[in-house]
Design a protein that fits this description.
Helix content: 25-40%
Oligomer: single chain
Shape: globular
Largest sheet: 5 strands, antiparallel
Order of helices and strands: HEHHEEEE
Radius of gyration: 17 Å
Number of helices: 3
Strand content: 15-25%
Distance between the termini: 37 Å
Number of strands: 5
Structural class: alpha+beta
Length: 150
């Protein structure tokens, strides 16, 4: 599968953007840990996953306790653009202590000694991107004016 890396950001950029958030909002929430089953359900509601595929994926995500982390950040995709709030999404892996560790550049916490192994006996995968995704548009301006949550 060839995935488009258009919406990924480098670790260096992500570090800069998350630090900018923390500098502007000291003491505020830094990130959110979300069950993967919730994201699967959203994709199912949008019709991107069939009920059968979503049910299978949710079952796997529940059994394995899979979660995604979303970091709050402030940044700009282009040097001459205004800064805007962002959410940076990345996968996590639960360790033996029950802590969900970030997967960055195909490694746990971006450390060289903790490669991601999908199955026992299979070589660790080579990452195709940083694994840090930014495909968000803040509200405002991209709000739903009729939503009761707006």
């Amino acid at each position: 599968m060839n995935l488009d890396n258009e919406n990924t950001v480098s670790l260096e950029t992500a570090e800069k953007w998350t630090q900018a958030w923390r500098d502007k909002h000291p003491g505020a929430c830094k990130a959110f840990l979300m069950p993967a089953v919730d994201l699967i359900e959203v994709l199912n509601e949008m019709g991107l996953l069939s009920d059968k595929v979503a049910e299978k994926a949710q079952g796997k995500a529940c059994v394995k306790g899979l979660k995604v982390r979303a970091y709050t950040a402030i940044g700009s995709d282009e040097p001459d653009e205004d800064l805007e709030e962002k959410l940076l999404l990345l996968a996590t892996k639960k360790d033996k202590k029950g802590i969900y560790r970030d997967i960055i550049n195909g490694k746990i916490d971006n450390k060289n000694d903790r490669r991601i192994i999908l199955k026992e006996g299979v070589e660790p995968i080579e990452p195709i991107s940083s694994g840090i995704y930014d495909f968000t548009d803040p509200c405002p301006p991209s709000c739903d004016p009729n939503s009761p949550l707006n």
